[in-house]
Amino acid sequence: MDNIIRTENLCFNYTDDETGETTCVLKDISLEIKRGEFIAVLGHNGSGKSTFAKHLNAILIPTSGKVWVGDIDTSDEKRLYDIRKMVGMVFQNPDNQMVANIVEDDVAFAPENLGVPREEIRKRVDTALAAVNMSEFAMHAPHMLSGGQKQRVAIAGVLAMEPEIIVLDEPTAMLDPNGRREIIETVKRLNKEKNMTVVMITHYMEEAVEADRVIVIDNGKIEMDAPPIEVFPKVEKMKSLGLDTPQATELAFLLKKNGFDIDSNVLSVGECADKIEQLWKRVMTND
Amino acid sequence: MLKDITLGQYFPGETVIHKLDPRTKILVMLAYIVVTFCVKNFYGYIALAAFVVVCVALSKIPPIFVIKGLRPIMVFIIITALFNLFLTSGTVVWQFGVLKITYEGIRFAVFMVLRLTFLILGTSLLTLTTSPISLTDGMETLLSPFAKIGLPAHELSMMMSIALRFIPTLMEETDKIMKAQAARGADFDSGNILSRAKAMIPILIPLFISAFRRADELATAMECRCYGVTENRTSLHELKFQKRDVGATIAFLVLVAVVAAINFIPSK
Amino acid sequence: MIKLENVSYTYMKGGPFEKKALDNISLEIGKGEFIGLIGHTGSGKSTLIQLLNGLIKPDCGRIIIDGTDITDKNTKMRDIRFKVGLVMQYPEYQLFEETVLKDISFGPSNMGLDNDEVKHRAEFAANLVGLPKELLSKSPFDLSGGQKRRAAIAGVLAMEPKVLILDEPTAGLDPAGRDEILFKIKDMHERMGLTVILVSHSMEDVAKLADRILVMNKGNKEMFDIPENIFRNADRLTEIGLNVPQVTKIVDELRHRGMPLKEGVYTINDGLYCIKEALSKGEKIC
After folding, report:
1. pTM, to two decimals
2. Does the beta carbon of B214 lie under 8 angstroms from any beta carbon of chain A?
3. Structural domains of chain A ordered from first start
4. For residue C261, what are the contacts with CB-CB under 8 A and spacing of at least 6?
5. Where are the domains of chain B?
6. What contacts B243, CB < 8 A, 6 or more positions away?
7. Nearest-CA residue of chain A relative to C267?
8. How do residues C213-247 score in pLDDT, each as one tens digit?
9. Which of B99, C146, C185, C235 has a Cα at 20 to 30 A from C179?
10. So what's the ipTM on this one?
């Protein structure tokens, strides 16, 4: 697999217009994201995770260091729209990213901007809506939809650009559990079936568990970068970073801490139950 | 269908009038306004009335809905009529002190009332039968030739469509903020005008701040979707003139001819 | 403290979108109770709390708060709102004053209290939610997200209500911010003897704090019981689209596989304790 995103010593400083104070939001971030990967970026509020996301499609340009999308350097202003086309961005508030008052018109917005011919727009809109299971709502007004549905339309709006990467900045923060489930299912499906590269910023660990790889950002630096199964069992470290771990992982971890011989590398209810059952059977046969 | 948001006064339907190309409707509307001002005698108004009645009947909109459109402008019509009635000089019919009514005054006043009434009836028929979206589409296409001389046709229609998109959102938000402030004991319905205006501050400030925040986020989201990348924007929708548009235009031209002919008939 | 008798409410009555939001609800909440209110979007929970606060009026039925029938025509709604403090979702969007202190003072000054008392209450409320004094003279718009949220909660607390209703007070916060707010709410509940109704999507959060949990479904009162009994019905909760804490699922699953574990486990510590017991003794203890 080839790398589709590469950052090299990415630093970003933010200067307050009023006070003139400069804060270092991102420090020396170097990483590579492979084509088709599903990455979750975790971190508490103010950790710099959203700032990082904004560097991936040149909303922000590094103060120092480099970000490459494909083979394009994001600081190359002439290629700005090539980058935007390649990296679709979905934001937290679905209401604030829709321009049209009919779903299909909104999905058509990006291809219209790109000057795509009409028949092609039609095709793209239909494909994008189908990809997020919203075809039947094509003619609805956005304000009549649920939060999860709106956010799926926002994803379709980005898909219509035919991007290679989707970056989602806390797409579920404003949604109820049903809406959250809809989004995470949609994102997973896009990743699996269409081999879309996904970078999802979130602070719900149950969403991060679904990713191939979790990047934990704290205080502008990468604290951890590994598959979920290696990240979440570090329960104490996660807590110290102000993050949650799945209860299943925590339970196994606590049992281990209490002196039981259990493999605490679990993420799901099923895995945790299996491990505890094995332990219990061992205890029973020893008796 | 939900596509037709119940905004403004759009009355959804599938009739010939609804299906006309928005450009046809806008152009006919503009010409119709001119015609209402060109009518010189009562027969002309009968012709206009016939035209409007036929349109309303074709659109299947309950007439009461169309007439309702007059309500907000009633005061204006009455004031205009009164001015004409009392301030036109000519043959005096009735006099009381400085107040006098002349024959010409009555004639002008009645004309004014008819003129404004038909103006409003006609224009509200446009907004009643055309969804805001196709109205915007139509306007953009009609104005696009003027883009060459610097008229921001696309920008104007984009602004309109965003405004339409956000009105329900902001209305919902207003309701939420009002409830939140009411829960803190804000009182919106008592006191004089001044204190009522003051009571709006706790609603307006959060509303403005939120609107600006939304605008900011929307701008970023639009940029991320390549807004402004090319001059040659395409569109999902295609406006096409059809047979019925030709028909409508001919029908309207007939009205113009009739009014013109009637104008030569002496009015007494 | 709160008593509902056969309360129903319909949205957009008579219109094409008519929707029954609450259907014949009766319940009682005691003074000083901590109630968790759970239900998915559209279950009627928002309607319920707006009724309690007098923001909307029921179609029928009676609502009695602290001895006053608020459905009575002669009851002044504003008095009820001072008695029942409602913190709406994303309450930081209601901030509007020049300074944090002035904003927190908005509620109490609407009550017609004198300036000293208003200031005293506002400072007290700010302290309760853990806003440092030096922030009070700042503009509320310069605060961080979590601070704004706390300032907005203080704005309701400063009215010194007897009942405090919070609608999703942790929505959009990160885990640390969420835990902090929940801790403050628990603290207020204990220190002030407040009756608290906490609306949440998160079973985990509610389970940790509530004395009793009210589960709403399609405008009906689905369950209203102590947490242990609620989580005995994990299957039913899942059926109506609610999330059950993972630990409840794990313990239930292990019980099905034959481990001697009790029903209705809903906290990690409880789960840990009971699994530990089962493992060390190998017999049913808990």
Report:
1. 0.86
2. yes
3. 3-228 (3.40.50.300), 246-287 (no CATH)
4. C251, C254, C255, C274, C275, C278, C286
5. 16-143+240-263, 152-224
6. none
7. A247
8. 999 999 999 999 999 999 999 999 988 888 889 99
9. C235
10. 0.90
